[in-house]
Write a structure and sequence with these properties.
Layout: H1 4-26, E1 31-35, E2 38-43, H2 46-66, E3 72-77, H3 84-91, H4 123-133, E4 143-146, H5 153-163, E5 168-172, H6 173-186, H7 189-197, E6 202-206, H8 215-230, E7 234-239, H9 251-257, E8 261-264, H10 270-283, H11 290-298, H12 304-321, H13 327-335, H14 346-357, H15 361-364, H16 371-387, H17 392-398, H18 403-419, H19 421-431
Parallel strand pairs: 2-3, 4-7, 4-8, 5-6, 6-7
Antiparallel strand pairs: 1-2
């Protein structure tokens, strides 16, 4: 730019405000040009421009004013789609740095709209959720957010709950079913109806597919929705499929659900995937080189969960082994996710876990909360998801549970094998006795999986 010193001053002021991680993710390779009192910042692509402008425009403007250089800031896409500084950085020799351990990404405690990465595959659902949170639901109610596991349904539902002011009830369909069933047995249905129909502004109900086949609960939900919508209240629902693909739901209830807006969360495209990885890495205080993020974004993940599993594979491997994140390490980490071999069945994996831990099949599918049973049960659920094509619902049925219990078990395993490396090796030893099929799915979340070559055919 005409005044490189001025841009460097602004860059440093931005770094102080957003921190090193966010700066490295979004600002490191940006260039800028002074045009009078206007600072024009060049971004590598339209998505980056929109993201930086939408989230950091105020920060950059304040930094420019504090640096005493510019009074106005504009953002544009660099000619050719690559910022000049990015091209220059590729021509410079790479500095060799001592390996620095990376910390595992933290689990977000309070999802918000700001932390939800917008893309063409989720824009409708995001804007509808924002409208609901602002109290402008209108024809969006009932709002049904659909998408596969990991697409972001729960993120948006919790963001709505956090942003809505007033009386809000947030439930999973499993919790709602439990309340209705218990009330029916105890003759307390009027209390449940008062809870859900009086002085209620917003009802958020997740995992609608769980209600398939539960006739009595569906009838109660139909009348509850009918009452709330008729009285101008807002209803938000989520499901892994659209109403037409829920044959186990009563036709009247499906019709009521479909009377509002159905917003689908699709598989993130390349630009959205890259933005998600940048944001998650920055939020976790982890520095990942741009070329490594691009490798992760290019991997066909299928869902946000699977996309982030690749990121966590890389971060955890670098942390545990004290290595710097490089393209070679990324290839090693991703190679550990997809290994061909002979497919296993649910029953084979469950029996294997039972034999290894000396736990009967009845105990694995029972209700005991003893640690000696809970750990092999959770490991078995995790491995069933990893090494078979079975759905979450099918896995839950094998353990006499619903799919939400399987999701909880998978999340628990993925979190603990990062927090406690010894559990990772325990899981590796167990997984080494399983040979996955050619269609073995990527790790469903944050898990560390075994490296290739350590399995036996056994």
């Amino acid at each position: 730019m005409a005044n490189p010193g001025g841009w460097e001053a602004v860059r440093e002021a931005v770094r102080e405000r957003v921190g090193n991680a966010a700066f490295g993710a979004w600002f490191e390779n940006l260039d800028a040009e002074a045009n009078g009192q206007q600072l024009v910042i060049r971004c590598p692509d339209r998505f980056s421009r929109d993201w930086i402008r939408g989230r950091y425009a105020g920060v950059v403007s304040e930094a420019a004013r504090s640096a005493g250089r510019m009074t106005q800031v504009a953002f544009e896409v660099a000619v050719g789609g690559v910022a000049p500084s990015t091209q220059a950085s590729k021509a410079r020799p790479v500095r060799t740095r001592a390996p620095q351990p990376e910390l595992p990404l933290p689990r977000p405690a309070d999802p918000s709209f700001e932390s939800f990465v917008r893309g063409p595959d989720n824009a409708l659902a995001l804007e509808a959720a924002r409208a609901v949170a602002r109290g402008n639901a209108g024809r969006c109610s009932p709002l049904l957010i659909t998408g596969e596991s990991g697409a972001g349904k729960t993120h948006l539902c919790r963001a709505i709950r956090g942003a809505v002011r007033g009386d809000t009830v947030y439930r999973s369909s499993e919790e709602f079913t439990g309340e209705v069933t218990q009330a029916m047995r105890g003759g307390q249905m009027e209390a449940v109806r008062r809870r859900y129909r009086r002085s209620l502004n917003v009802l958020i109900l997740e995992d609608l597919q769980f209600l398939e086949g539960k006739r009595a609960t569906q009838i109660e939900l139909f009348h509850t929705l009918d009452h709330l919508i008729t009285h101008g209240k807002t209803v938000v629902l989520s499901a892994d499929r659209g109403p037409q693909d829920l044959p186990g739901i009563d036709v009247r209830l499906r019709s009521r659900i479909a009377s509002g807006l159905v917003a689908h969360l699709g598989t993130p495209g390349p630009e959205t995937a890259l933005a998600i990885l940048r944001e998650k890495a920055a939020a976790g205080g982890v520095r990942i080189p741009a070329d490594c993020l691009e490798m992760l974004a290019a991997r066909p993940a299928g869902s946000v969960h699977n996309l982030l599993s690749g990121l966590n594979q890389v971060v955890a491997r670098a942390s545990l082994m004290g290595r710097t994140v490089t393209p070679e390490l990324v290839r090693e980490a991703l190679a550990a996710v997809e290994v061909p071999g002979r497919a296993r069945t649910l029953q084979e994996i469950i029996e294997l876990c039972g034999r290894v831990y000396g736990v009967s099949l009845e105990a694995l599918s029972g209700r005991s909360r003893k640690r000696a049973i809970v750990r092999p049960r959770q490991f078995a659920m995790y491995l069933c998801r990893r090494y078979t094509d079975a759905s979450l619902k099918d896995i839950g049925r094998a353990f006499r549970r619903d799919h939400t219990s399987v999701i909880y078990a998978i999340d628990t395993v993925e979190r603990r094998i990062v927090e406690r490396p010894q559990l990772r090796y325990e899981l590796e030893a167990l997984a080494a006795r399983i040979s996955p099929g050619p269609r073995a799915r990527p790790a469903p979340g944050r898990g560390l999986l075994e490296a290739p070559g350590r399995r036996s055919a056994g």
